[in-house]
Input
Amino acid sequence: MTQGEAREFVWNALSQYHAAAYPTPPHGHHPNFVGASRASERLMLSKVYLKAEVILAGPDQVLKPLREAAMKSGKKLILPHPDKPGQYVNLEGLHPTQLKRVRDVARLGKPVELSQTPIDLVLVGAVVVDEKLGWVGKGYGFPYRGLEVAAPWVCLAHTLMVFEELPCEAERHMDLIVTPHQVMKGGKL
Output
């Protein structure tokens, strides 16, 4: 199975079993899913999240509760610029209510040089993951292919997105994968 076929398999399963949440259909996205709030709550209780002061997060809807919680708790939140690949903005000092849409980060955030910013945690969406912490994303956008950040990488996943072993090559590996029902940790954590 190719990465594209694995993505289609998961997106179709999420649709078929009514496990996808807004925006739907899940195809073409790091999908939001039923139970994502519960997975977010599990992550927010983890040591890696609690210790993180600077978080690089993806713009996906599934990560919105985590981004909002980070902003409310005073963590420094960095997002990719929505229109300029490879550029990032710092949302420090903003309240989540100021961001009506993810695109608002371009107007309200302050440009930041990622290479000059120590990151404590990277939050990304996912499409396909496995119990060995392999990860396949949506195939484009953030996280950019080749992006290297020396911090723990974390994603949320619905049970339908989790394979015992990936049916294709992993794009990268996570340090932590959180579902509504379990937390899968790598050796670094």
